[in-house]
Amino acid sequence: MNALDKIGLQGSLWMTVGGENLGGAGRVELLGAIAECGSITQAAKLVKMSYKAAWDAIDAMNNLAGEPLVERLTGGKGGGGTRLTQRGRQLVDNFRIIEREHARYLRQLGSQAEGIADDLLLIRRMAMKTTARNQFLGKVAELKQGAVNDEVTLELPGGQHIVAIVTQGSSASLGLVPGAEAFALIKASSIILVADSEGARFSARNQLAGTVTRVQTGAVNTEVVLDLPRGGTIAAIITNQSSTDLGIELGSSVTAMFKASSVILGVPA
Which residues, including other chains, have CB under 8 Å from residue 47's CB and lie 6 or more apart? Predict the structure, then answer.
């Protein structure tokens, strides 16, 4: 480093819910673009994000926020569109206020960094990342202890419940007690879709009925996203043949099922 070079301080601002990343400048920029364009497609192009990545980000934010930040519009002259809810607009406005204050704080702190030794270390927090497509934040509603495993019932903000089976050791180390915050992770490949479950019985403890809102077909598999009636979404990966056999299409009613043993629980750090 040149002796005349000044040490500058930089930092990123992001929001978390229960230890999970709700959003930073990139996601807030996406929300702002949706408010401006009224279209997910146009907003994604504006922030240089793929259409799928934009929807994945929106689904994650809606689920973690506990209420919709983005909602769809149907009908109208343009055939529908997308807009921010009041909560979504409030979040964008408040984030931008906090972001300005954060930048001002860094400028003030940076002005005091002159003269600090060249070997100053800037330590970054390590954020947890997961490949699980479905992430839900909730509170432990019930804990049933068994001889080896515990059954944990997690209540989501929308009122839905997810049941998980974990070992007693895991339950204790995570501090899973009624009222404690926890998040549930379920891989999309662990979700079973049923198009007509009336009169049928299944061993899967978790059954969430919803409406198909997105279908993305690949070379072998199809990603199906369901809107849940009380808020939130759930995604499943099934084969193209299964999608055809089930008659999966936009607007159809489908039930997403998954075993309690397929749920991974975590708690905020």
Answer: 26, 29, 30, 33, 54
